[in-house]
């Protein structure tokens, strides 16, 4: 019997994390991140490290499925509604569409775009600028950077605290 | 939602013999027949772009090659491209797969419209050939035309002095009838790419093209990038009865309008039957099914429902005798207080709705269908709508028939 690991949650001050988000295990959230209600972060099998200015929408699941190794998510990534991420490493400026899934121990480089409902297979490596169009069909766009979500994040940072409590400060609703 | 209403479990027989949902059927008021889209004439009413809702006439659409000139689609995933500005210049980007016009090597433009497409290289040559053929046709028809023209053979304007400019007029006509022919140069075929080269070209780039992408841009060769695709036009249909050629469904004028100018849907004339409770099956024992019958028409209906005999294996045997009922229409408020006649068959009565209980014995197979035949007369709606030359009384007392099959199993 091993005791359940203590929750070591580090949230940067400028990040907006809603109280309804479920966070367990060792999770560190960088500057300017926005986490919507009902997002799930499960770091029971290993820590999750999230960079700056990431967006996590409702019901997205970030779960570390490794054996104690950290899961690293870079800067300016957007995880849309009901997306699932079990990846080992996610780079910068990636866009994960609604209900898309990054399977166990896959590796996603920078500027990738996973379109809605598409899967990245287990242990697959997505190179830079890859677009997963359908399941198994990968296209590369040439040297374009994904648009950074600064405007959207700015609005959400101002708007979300008006309707939700911040994580760890105040009651959960719903 | 459709599973909840379960309208698909009740099928009506069309006049062509097919069984379909009531919502898919039309009713011709002149022939008193149920028509489906397959046995009626479907005509294209209007051509329009589904994206910008711009309507175009048929010759216009032919000129545009059945494409909208303003809207473009992503060549990769067929989603609509949206414009974006950078330094006061436009480029297009696909929101779904992040394809950009810059990837195709198209420079940013001043306006978001008119993006390049691949044109056929030999268009001019083709036009020349067409013109040449037209001239040849004219020469071929010239003797016929001059015969039809009824000019006395003895007289000719060639004998006249060129005093009044007649000579030149005649010359012009002659020129028109026998145009000068300049021989066209022969089209020299180009060597097409060999299969090896084609395949090499395809594998050169990182992105392989799917068959769909190639079919949508047949003019782009394998070493050229794909350009944005113009959105194909769509047609809006109107439906006409195939026997009396009267219009059954016609949309209102304008693309944006969603109302109907003429609509003759079967649900407005034929009683609507639904299963209202889940059916309980007991093997070899009498089971019950509760059907609700709704009158959605504008006049009361006299209805006789009789179960059909078991003619197929999957039909169930129904022991309920034929039922005669009258259902008031939904508009009529006077008949709201119809005496609640209740019997073993009639379970409830609610304004223009009646619940009927049918007893049946399930068959041995897994599929259970209940066949009903309806005979009904309507008082008002046909008298008003039928042709004036027809006897309205005859039309109103006409007994209409419909065959219905109810799917009892899930």
UniProtKB/TrEMBL annotation, chain A:
Any one annotated GO CC term: dynactin complex
InterPro entries, A to Z: DCTN6 (IPR027777), Trimer_LpxA-like_sf (IPR011004)
One GO MF term: dynein complex binding
The keyword Repeat belongs to this UniProt entry's keyword annotation: no
Cytoplasm listed as a keyword: yes
Key words of the record: Cytoplasm, Cytoskeleton
Domain of life assignment: Eukaryota
Coarse class of the protein's main subcellular location: cytoplasm
Subcellular location field: Cytoplasm, Cytoskeleton
GO BP annotations, alphabetical order: mitotic spindle organization
Entry similarity comment: Belongs to the dynactin subunits 5/6 family. Dynactin subunit 6 subfamily.
Record function comment: Part of the dynactin complex that activates the molecular motor dynein for ultra-processive transport along microtubules.
Protein name: Dynactin subunit 6
Organism: Caenorhabditis angaria
UniProtKB/TrEMBL annotation, chain B:
Protein location: Cytoplasm, Cell cortex; Cytoplasm, Cytoskeleton, Microtubule organizing center, Centrosome; Cytoplasm, Cytoskeleton, Stress fiber; Cytoplasm, Myofibril
InterPro entries for this protein: DCTN4 (IPR008603)
Residue ranges crossing the lipid bilayer per the database entry: none
Superkingdom to which the source organism belongs: Eukaryota
Major localization listed first in the record, in broad terms: cytoplasm
One annotated Gene Ontology cellular component of this protein: stress fiber
Record keywords: Acetylation, Coiled coil, Cytoplasm, Cytoskeleton, Isopeptide bond, Phosphoprotein, Ubl conjugation
Protein family membership: Belongs to the dynactin subunit 4 family.
PANTHER family: DYNACTIN P62 SUBUNIT, DYNACTIN SUBUNIT 4
SUBUNIT field: Subunit of dynactin, a multiprotein complex part of a tripartite complex with dynein and a adapter, such as BICDL1, BICD2 or HOOK3. The dynactin complex is built around ACTR1A/ACTB filament and consists of an actin-related filament composed of a shoulder domain, a pointed end and a barbed end. Its length is defined by its flexible shoulder domain. The soulder is composed of 2 DCTN1 subunits, 4 DCTN2 and 2 DCTN3. The 4 DCNT2 (via N-terminus) bind the ACTR1A filament and act as molecular rulers to determine the length. The pointed end is important for binding dynein-dynactin cargo adapters.
Protein name (database record): Dynactin subunit 4
Lineage: Eukaryota, Metazoa, Ecdysozoa, Nematoda, Chromadorea
